[in-house]
From TrEMBL:
The lineage of its organism: Bacteria, Pseudomonadati, Pseudomonadota, Gammaproteobacteria, Alteromonadales. It comes from the Bacteria. Residues 408-460 form the PAC domain. This is GGDEF domain-containing protein. Its cofactor is Mg(2+). It comes from Pseudidiomarina marina. PROSITE patterns: GGDEF, PAC. GO terms for molecular function: catalytic activity.
Length: 624
């Protein structure tokens, strides 16, 4: 009897030890299984977040550099001073006349670029046509004495003057045959680049910013102490960085120093330059190890207490009830958390059955539609849909997608009780039973009206000339391309009337740019008086305008319209207290008689305009 009791006791103690060790090892394995993926996830998340911040900073810097390049291209494309350079290349002007013709105009244009330090225009053979200072020339501590020829092959580059670094932008000047006949080189101060990097710096003062040129093995570093850009060359121990930088965003972990550092490299498109953000890596592994040790200690203590409790009282049922109580408490906590997320979410969340009858909606939904809570339940969600935009066919497509997939996302138009419609970005997720049948649907959406309006506004600005509010060059080419497509279907023809203003330059030189701008703004309304409502008037730039006319019945119709426009533009313009009189020379090109593409049609009409101008101005001429 005593031996049996001893055996039972021994077996019971062995069982307790095995239970203790099993629970302890399970806890350790579970902790490690949580620790290692969590460490990897946090490290990857840190890299993705850092790369996203670096990408935003690189985009801002690149946009500013592209803005500088765009300014240089605008200088190079200015019509009058470009024509003077073309005349010089053709031998019609000597260098002195070219300098006289160019210097004042290009200096006046430079005065409106706030961050411009200096600039120069040179011919294709290297002769300096105009060298001028910009509004920010005070940034130079010493007289500017640069080898401008050294910067000619570059688009975007840099110049170092007395240890201060400046950004240079070069743009070729081309003639009508796209041959380079000269180049404009502009020099900009570093203040705008510094402001962008300083304002976007979310990493802290220990972060380094570098503009890297992998082709020339050098970089420009943002010095946060002196608040300046400094040119530096890669040292022997840093040359391997260049091999790591490709043409896609890249994260490199440098462990060569005591404190590991992360290098986020964002390349600039169509350039050898890129932005590198370097900051110390935040180690999370040590903190996780500490947490693991704490958890292991807690597990050990809990197992010891549980083993003692089991050994002394042998109450497994009570322990099971306690475990069940803890599980229920955790479940209640999760349910409360889910309910808090549901009610506090900024997006409208609606739970419906499979027939779209509303079972529950959160506060954001109530506020969005300004409706009482008791009027929502058991109401069909389709009652809030704008059925004019969400047809039955679209609804059937959404249902078929949800049946085959776990979710659907797209744009849905809703209508408020007052009748106002608005677009929403909506996600629909089904809740299925064990058989895979959708029992409920979770709808999450928010109003995206502001985003759509902003997108439409940006698109409108991109297609409109900022001075005259007429369609710009890009919009004119789009309209012309659409007109050609419609003409091909209708088997009719369309006409492009290209004209520029005669004697506009004396007005600009005598009365100033403000009067000249006001005169350009008056051209569109004057011309529209001679046209049909379907005809389009656009401005290409400078004093060059175009008229697009479709559905032409006969050539005499175009001759009549062109003559009326020429006569209308000869009539005096009242600008403030001034009475101004100008004229216009016009070239006319027809599709498909003279060209097949919008650009060719524009070029041929331009050539016809010059023929009209050579024939005595204030007249129009058809392309041959």
């Amino acid at each position: 009897m005593g031996q049996t009791a001893t055996d039972i006791s021994g077996k019971y103690r062995t069982l307790i030890r095995r239970v203790v060790w099993g629970i302890l090892l399970t806890g350790i394995v579970a902790s490690l299984a949580t620790l290692l993926p969590l460490s990897f996830y946090i490290s990857q998340s840190q890299e993705r977040t850092g790369l996203a911040y670096a990408s935003a900073q690189a985009m801002s810097v690149q946009k500013q550099l592209q803005h500088y390049q765009s300014i240089a291209k605008q200088f190079a494309s200015r019509t009058q001073i470009r024509k003077a350079l073309i005349a010089y290349s053709a031998g019609e002007l000597d260098i002195a006349q070219l300098v006289q013709e160019t210097r004042d105009r290009i200096t006046d244009a430079a005065a409106f670029i706030p961050n411009l330090v200096a600039g120069v225009r040179v011919t294709n053979s290297g002769e300096i046509v105009a060298q001028y200072d910009g509004p920010a020339s005070s940034l130079l501590d010493a007289k500017l004495n640069l080898d401008w020829q050294q910067l000619r092959p570059y688009g975007m580059h840099y110049v170092t003057v007395d240890d201060d670094l400046f950004i240079s932008a070069a743009a070729p000047i081309v003639d009508e045959d796209k041959r380079t006949i000269g180049i404009d080189i502009l020099l900009f101060g570093p203040t705008e680049i510094l402001d962008i990097v300083r304002e976007l710096n979310t990493f802290g003062q220990s972060t380094n910013f570098r503009l890297v040129n992998s082709r020339e093995r050098l970089y420009i570093e943002f010095d946060q102490v002196s608040n300046q850009l400094k040119q530096r060359e890669f040292g022997s121990n840093e040359s391997f960085y260049i091999a790591a930088y490709g043409n896609v965003p890249f994260v490199y972990r440098d462990t060569s120093k005591e404190a590991p550092r992360l290098h986020y490299f964002i390349p600039f498109s169509d350039s050898a330059w890129g932005l590198v953000v370097i900051h110390a890596e935040t180690s999370v592994f040590g903190a996780l190890v500490t947490e693991f040790a704490s958890v292991a200690l807690v597990i050990l203590i809990a197992v010891t207490i549980g083993a003692w409790w089991l050994h002394k009282y042998s109450q497994p049922i009570i322990r099971a009830q306690l475990a069940q109580h803890r599980q229920l408490r955790e479940s209640n906590r999760k349910l409360k958390l889910a309910n808090t997320v549901f009610e506090k979410a900024q997006e409208a969340i609606v739970i419906t059955d499979n027939s779209l009858i509303i079972l529950r909606a959160n506060k954001a939904f109530v506020q969005l539609f300004n409706i009482e809570v008791d009027k929502i339940k058991n109401t069909c969600l389709l009652a809030f849909i704008d059925d004019g935009r969400m047809t039955n066919e679209i609804q059937r497509q959404v249902r078929r997608h949800i049946q085959k997939n776990d979710s659907w996302q797209g744009e849905v138009w809703y209508k408020k009780p007052g009748g106002q419609s608005f677009p929403a970005l909506q996600t629909i997720t089904p809740v299925r039973n064990n058989d895979g049948r959708a029992l409920q649907l979770i709808h999450i959406f928010n109003d995206i009206s502001a985003e759509k309006h902003a997108q439409e506004r940006l698109q409108q600005l991109a297609l409109t000339d900022t001075l005259t509010h007429l369609p710009n060059r890009f919009a004119v080419l789009q309209h012309l391309d659409d007109a050609i497509k419609r003409t091909n279907l209708s088997k009719q023809s369309c006409a492009l009337l290209f004209f520029d203003l005669d004697f506009f330059k004396p007005v600009n030189d005598t009365h100033g740019h403000d009067v000249g701008d006001a005169l350009l703004q008056a051209i569109g309304p004057r011309v529209r008086e001679c046209l049909r409502s379907s005809d389009i008037v656009g401005r290409l730039g400078g004093d060059e305008f175009v008229i697009l006319i479709e559905n032409i019945q006969q050539r005499s119709d175009i001759e009549k319209i062109a003559g009326e426009v020429i006569v209308a533009l000869q009539k005096p313009f009242r600008i403030g207290t001034l009475t101004l009189q100008i004229g216009a020379s016009m070239g006319v090109a027809l599709y498909p008689d003279h060209a097949d593409t919008p650009k060719q049609l524009l070029k041929i009409a331009d050539a016809a305009m010059y023929k009209a101008k050579e024939g005595g101005r204030n007249q129009f001429c058809f392309a041959e």
